[in-house]
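This week, look over our next protein:
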Amino acid sequence: LPAFYANIVLLNVSNLPFRLQKLKEMFISKFGSAPKFYVRAPGRVNLIGEHIDYCGYAVLPMAIEQDILIAVEPVKTQVVQLANTNSLYLDFSTSVNNIQINKTKPQWHNYFLCGLKGIQEHFGLNNPTGMNCLLDGTIPPSSGLSSSSALVCCAGLVTLRANGKTLSKVELAEICTKSERYIGTEGGGMDQSISFLAEEGTAKLIEFSPLRATDVRLPSGAAFVIANSCVESNKAATSHYNIRVMECRLATKLLSKSKGLDWKKMLRLHDVQTKLGVGLEEMLTIVEEVLHPEPYSTEEICKCLGISLEELRAQILSQNTQDVSTFKLYQRAKHVYSEAARVLEFKKICNEAPANAIQLLGELMNQSYISCREMYECSCPELDRLVDICLQFGAIGSRLTGAGWGGCTVSMVPTDKLNAFLKNVRKAYYQTDVQRLALEKNSLFATKPGRGALVFVEA
C-alpha cells in the first residue's frame, strides 16, 4: 500500500465544507491562529464477527459516516494543547516529552495520548513537535461504534503528519492497535484496521497476521440500520471485555495442552486451529471433548496446566484480571469458533449473491446475536429488547455490534420497508422513554460503507 499521504485531500480555502469552516473558526477563536491541516477518522459498524479479532479470526466491518475530526497547528513549543468542541470534554495540555496515560480514568484526552505515544515510540522521536488541536466528534460515545479507536487513529495520523513522517495504512493500523493498549484495552485490531483501510461503497473482510483487507460487496435491496440502545459501554472502564480476552486465552492454553501442543507459546484460539491443521467444525468438536460447560476456578486451571497460582497471574492473566476467580472457557471458545465460521459464510454469500442472499445473511446475523447473548454473555436487557423490536418491525437480521453490554444494534432491513421500519422502531423504543427520546436524533439511522481516514489540507 502507498504511504498514507496519498490520502491527502486538498480543499479550496474559499470553499471549505461547512463543518470544517466552523471548526476552523472555533480553532482561531481558541488558539489565536489558524490550523495548518485537518485529520478525519471514521467510526465503524461490525456487520458480523464479534469478539473474535483478538482471537486471530477475520471480521467483517464497514466504516460509517460518523467520525472524529481534528484541526491541527504544529507549534515550536514542545506542548500539546487539546480542546474539544463539546464543552463536556475539558481542555488538556501536556509536554510531548512526558506522556502519562491514566488507565484508571479513561478520559477523552487519554485516547489521543495513546495515538500520540504510539507514533512517537515507533519512530523514536527525541524532539517531537508540539501541537494545538481542536477535536470535533460525531460518533456517539460508548456506543459500540468505535469512537475511542477512531480518536486513537486520528491522533496517530495527526502526530505522523505534524512530525513529517510517512507510513502505510497497514502500518498505521497496526501501530494504533498496539498503542490503544496503553489505556488497558486488550483489543484485537478490527477497529483501527477498518478506520484506515475502509473504502466508500464496500464493507471489508479484515484478516490478521498479516493484516489484510478484502472488499465485500453487500447485497442491493437491503439497508443496514444502526440503533443505539442508549446504554453506554466503555471497554476501558469495565472489566467485562478484558475478562473475555483472558477466557479465550485460557481456553487456548487448555485446548493446546490437551492436544500435546506447546501451550506456553499459544495465545489465540486461531493458533490452536492452525497448529492442528483442522477446520472450524472440527475445532467445535474438540471444544466439546476437552472443555466442560461449568466455570473453571483458578485452582482447576492451574491443575490442568501444571502451574502455580502465582505463575498463572504473572505469566498469563492481564493486570486487570488478576482478582477474577472463575472463568467460562467452553462457552467463549464455542462462540469464537462458530462466529469465525459465520464470518466466512457471510462473505461467501455476498460473493456468490444467490437469489435468497438477504434471507441467508439475516439468519447468520441472528445466529451471531444468539451466540453473543448466550455463549459470550455480552448483551444486556436493553439490547435484547431492541433486537426484538427490530425483528418485529421487519429486520431480516439484527444483532448487537461492538463490544456489547450496551451500545448499538445493527439490523439488515429490506429497502422497501426502511421508512416504516425507522418509524416503528422510533415509536416502540425511543418514544417510550424520556431519556432515550432526548438522544433519538443521533441514535437511529441507516448507513452505507464509508471512507477511511483522511488528511485535509487547504489549497
Notes: The longest strand covers residues 60-75. The chain has a mean pLDDT of 93. The CA atoms of residues 370 and 399 lie 8 Å apart. The chain has 15 helices and 15 strands.
